Structure prediction request, 142 residues.
Amino acid sequence: MGMRVVLDTDSLVAAMRSPSGASAGLLEEALSGRITLLANVALVLEYEAVCARAQHMAAAGIDAAELKVFLDAVAALVEPVESHFVWRPQLRDPADEMVLEAAVNGRADAIVTFNRRDFGDAPKRFGVKVLLPREALRSLVT
Prediction:
């Protein structure tokens, strides 16, 4: 069984904006079944809201229809996580809290983010690593 990961919203935006980057590579690994993407409803709604921002769509060179295809594809890859337990507050940012909740309730191996500092030591207390996209991708090769 492959690695179980929760993508922080910044990693999903990076995948959308840069199809040749490490974040997009993680989506390809999910498509091939080498990793399992995990998310709860709140996180998927956050993905949609942030990816739909004009600056991200412009940088990705996509329109609303293409965004819908991208988000539908991501949603199809995600293993849904129900949040049976809530440990809030663990972090400063409520948006990061939903990422941590999805990771803990989904028994994730890692949270993939560019903002490691935002998560502090909280994930470690639950046995969840915090990795940069390139580190997560590299761990699949080694």
Notes: The CA atoms of residues 52 and 77 lie 19 Å apart. The longest helix spans residues 64-77. The mean pLDDT is 91.
